[in-house]
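Repro case for the chain-ordering regression, as requested:
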Amino acid sequence: MSVRGDGGNWPFVQGIRQGNTSANETAVPGLSWNSALNTMSIHLNPDNCLACTTCVVHCPVAAATPAFSGPRMIGPGFERFRLLGLCEDRSLTYCANCKNCEIACPQNVPVATINMLARFAQCREEPPSFRDWILAHGEIIARFLSFIPARLKNFGMGLGPVRNLLDVIGIAKECPMPSFAKVSLRSLFAHSANLETTKKCLAYFPGCYTNYYDPKTGLDVIWLLRKAGYHVIIPQEFVCCGIPLVSGGFEEDAKKNATINARVLADLAKKGIPVITSCPSCRLMLSREMKELFPEIIDEFGEPVIEDCMDVFTRLVESGELSPNTRERNIEAIYHAPCHLRALGGGLPGFELLASLPHSHLQNANAGCCGISGSYGFKKEKYDIAQKVGNDLFMSVTESKCSLVLSECGTCRLQITGNTNIPSLHPVSVLRSLCA
Amino acid sequence: MQRLSTTVLVVGGGATGIGTLRDLSMRGISAILVEQGSLAHGTSSRFHGLLHSGARYAVNDVVSARECIEENTILKKIGHQCIEQTEGFFVALPEDDESYIGSWADACTAAGIQTDEVDVNEACSIEPELSKKAVRVFRVPDSCVDGFRLVVHNAMSAKRHGGRILQYHRLVSIHQEQGNITGATVENTRDGSRLEIDCSAIISAAGSWAGEVCSKAGLDVPVSPDRGTLLVFNHRFTSRVVNRLHPGSDGDIFVPHGSITILGTTSVPTSRPDDTAPTEEEVLRLLDIGEPLFPNLRTYRILRAFAGTRPLYTPKGTATGRGASRNFQVFDHAKDGLSGFFSIFGGKLTTYRLMAERVTDACAAYLGISAPCTTHLEPLVPDPDPDVLAKAARYFPVSDLSLLADRAGDDLIPILNLAEACASEGEGANPLLCDCEMVSLAEVEHVARADDTYSLTDIRLRTRLGMGTCQGTFCTVRAINAMYEHDLLPAKDPLLSIRDFLDERFRGIRTTFWGTQAQEMELSHAIYAGVLNLDTAL
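-- result from build under test --
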């Protein structure tokens, strides 16, 4: 346990450090009373939790496996003991950080964030596995592999031996993998020209999934913004928002990324340039998680403001700057609301916009979490849980007989399409096709 | 009438009484202890839980200070399961008298208490909730002790050495012949039956009740109960004991305990030893006084308030209340014309063992027994075998193991056996009944099976069931359900048990009924009065 206030020559402190009770010397993990030396880092006050267990009822993971003690126990309940220096509960890693507990909590307790902070602390003691590193550092890996042609990469990723190898390190063989795009969004964007006449400027945070695997969504966002007369920029300095790093327990890396993004966002705010994103998870990280996890960054750079692109498009449609035409094309699709979008508490702008258009037959699946939770469902030991969690949703999607699924989140779409064989798109892509 | 025979009868089942029983038993002296309620029913279960380093007393009471540091060191050795080996901070704020700090540090050194100044910024970084206005911070070897567990573990040790304990037995009369003790009559407070105990000596360790006990022998003693009120907070906002560095005063010590923090205490003379109902004024006053050390104090949730009475020894002409000595006094009533009757007055939890040793010395000398005291050498309960712990890891949450092992002491193996039996019934058969304090069915069942367990409160004291965030909102009904299924507590009506338990919990919450705790009680009310219709059912 780290000791910033070193005990010096204090016999009683040294005694504790050596574990002066024979019980401490046993091989069983977690037998220690190192409370005095447990330096409290930031902790979220668990006092608001009434132990009402509403979060447990809404936790998809707790419903899928008895191995998870549930968000209330692991979060605010155990938080009271963490401050005592007890070893971590075994089931902490079962938390998928899907945020359904926070959505359900009547007391506004940041349950999942408490878990993530605990995960940070756990990973300071015991670094996460190589597999977790890979899953958390998708951006670095994608950049590293960028010199290999996408076709070759995707061919390689599809090969049995490669999947077997990944399976050995703990990435589930059965899980659908995203395909690398031929050219990343940033590269495509760099080669496209902005309309020179426009005056309004908008910065776009595409997020890693859009950038490396799904540039089409990004291009659709940019196309619509330009159509409405915006000058769009994608600042080169933007890095991964860090939410996979948080779930993986990589505190330092997440903090590094948060600092970089916060600085860029602060600069943009100073220049009066609004920022939007098409990824709800990135938005959750930048506008909410960052201030809970790294308050010192917010103290330095101020609170970032980043808007959902679908909110922007709703306004543009309402003001007539964009005019989707639904007379020739009906929307026959089923919509899945990503958990992180619901966690943001700002409604479902993508669904509401498309559903409000004339001749729209967009239905809301309203069937909970898809199970993937970023990289959670890729993990071999979590794969079955993720499948069980997503099962309701897969059934709803299949039974809807729709030929298209809409959802803002890239990995949600990957999971749904992988399990139902029904193609999926970001709502923005439908909007673009209607505005063409 | 039933008759028992022993050498020494000890009156009072608090830390001192049980410590005395242990000492007598370890010296091979046959002894019986009677306690009017359950173990530690008086002051010992109403603890602040500060295992004093003595620094608190160094300036005014150097004898107490020396005793504290010696006993502190001994208890960490023999009773580590009852002690969180934290350290303590003494923190001076700008408004505190600068000159006192120097004399305090000198007095500590003189008493043999190590103090070490800590850089204020460093102190604030390791205790982030501490006031940034702190001007001087010192480290001292304070620790936290679970007073109730200390009594239970002493009782386990005493029983192992042959000591007998009669709970729920009240002293009715003391028998004497020609100025010598010959025995006593005690009454079972649960069924009213009486019992004669023949003995050669009586030791009164009744704490605040010492006056009542002595009056049975027709003696008058100068013990005045002094009421102290404490606040329990829902979480641990400090990792160490934090004292205000100024002359001892109300409400300036914070003691973390497991998952909670306790702030105390006040000091008000009272006439009744059982004057233990705190008032809202006291609660608000404690918050006022504590706030300078922890500026966010009012944002933390208060679980409850409680009060206990200190048995201050105040011979005529000495100070009472805060000014009274915390020292103890062994009294041989031969001086009053009654041989074989000894009393121990005053003192504090930290020095209970020394008090027991001194009174046992006096009693042994009277009995002509020369066996020396060994209570400072032998652990109260042995450390569990690593194999037992490894096995326990299969049935209990690993993170909870150290808590369980420390709490259970001698009972770990029987609890483990019950858990094993539970587990053979299928997955999840040893569920946590109390999530807040991580108490599982096996532990509750073990305590419930004991002969001297009569109520959920008895179970609570041994396991911490119902002592966490929800204060019984969820665990009461779960525990009663489990009891019912396992046919435990047969004498008690389940609905009455629920009501009695929740009533007891609510007594401590009534004076802190605001904020989140009020919301919690609304939820509790909805569950028990609404869903379970308890008000109408009873």
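Ordering looks correct now. Chain B touches chain A through 64 residues (CB under 8 Å).
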